[in-house]
Write a structure and sequence with these properties.
Structural class: alpha+beta
Distance between the termini: 59 Å
Largest sheet: 3 strands, antiparallel
Helix content: 40-55%
Shape: globular
Radius of gyration: 23 Å
Amino acid sequence: MKEETKKAPYRVPIGPNHPALKEPVMFTFEVEGEVVRDVDFAPGQTHRGIEWMGMRRNPVQIVHLTDRICGICGVVHSLSFSMAVEDVAGIEVPERADYIRTIVHELERIQSHLLWAGVAAHELGFDSLLHLTWRVREDAMDVIENLTGNRVNYGIVQVGGVRRDILPEQHPVIERCLDRYESLLGTLLSFFLDDATIRARCRDVGVLSRENAIGLCTVGPTARASGVNVDLRQDYPYAAYGDLDVRAVLPGQYLGKTHGDVYDRIVVRLLEIGQSCQIIRQCLSEMPAGPVTAEEKLPKLLATCKKAVGEGIGRVEAPRGECLHYVRMEGKDSPAAWKVKASSYSNLMSWIPMLRGAQVADIPIIVASIDPCLSCTDRVAIVRDGRREILTKDDLHRLSVEKTRRLQG
């Protein structure tokens, strides 16, 4: 009997944990030769039940949890959540607190973009550039530590304002950091954009057309690199952005033309580092005097939150794009509902058109080019006896309750 011969395209699984991937996600590629003909992916390997935990705490306690949704952009989540609660409870944030929130928010964008730039350099085999970007990223981390006391999980934002003021003696520390970044930006742009290898590996690779970017509702630098003029800081200003001159950074402004490829995603993120420096300088020069929190006494703040009834939404422009928190309060200590939609959730589907027709060798840089962060997904995929199952948050809650009851006998 003749043995059946497998024919192309071949199915190639990669992930969920793989050296080529910086985030846990399961890809299944259909490959013919070195070309990716089709691709599917399954996120949801990192469920932590943070929303479930939050709904058993009061809003002031939840802010500390939101900082831990993402180790890179924690202030994005604490700010989004606080804005949602302030929306429900009718809390007016002091103007000075809004400026401090904006400064820390932009410092976080700088360190996040530099972190991504290092990852991109590594995926292209340019590790000396990885080491340069991660070394200079330390300057932003040092300033964040100086302002908040922490390098990650800053704990600076609270419902109604911020926990710490920025003192006059801290201004020179921030300005020296901005000076270094502004003097370095030209060098980084030259290293990334003038290097023949990076250009050969990134130009016209992982293309996302403007039509696909709009149709798939992509956000942040991924959308802007395809020529979509979206940025919450300009479209729906929050914190101090209404007082500032912020415009979306598009690759056509620098290159004269938009390709929507990996190269353009590098351009957008590097230019946004310079933009963040300008925003912070403007905040420092125009920061008004006054209190930094709407209510200094926590019992009074908690009482205000406890009386709140209704729904609220907080939206901020995270380094990866729009991040949204939804909160519903029903006059109790804890929220009746809390839902987080992180920016990567909106960008994941853009992988499909980017990867179709790509070379196998380009998979790592294309996957990394949207700067994915999968720490906010709420499902778990398991394989048992050859069968694949998806466990939702309700399933995990039920399993947790059942285990507790078993332990209690």
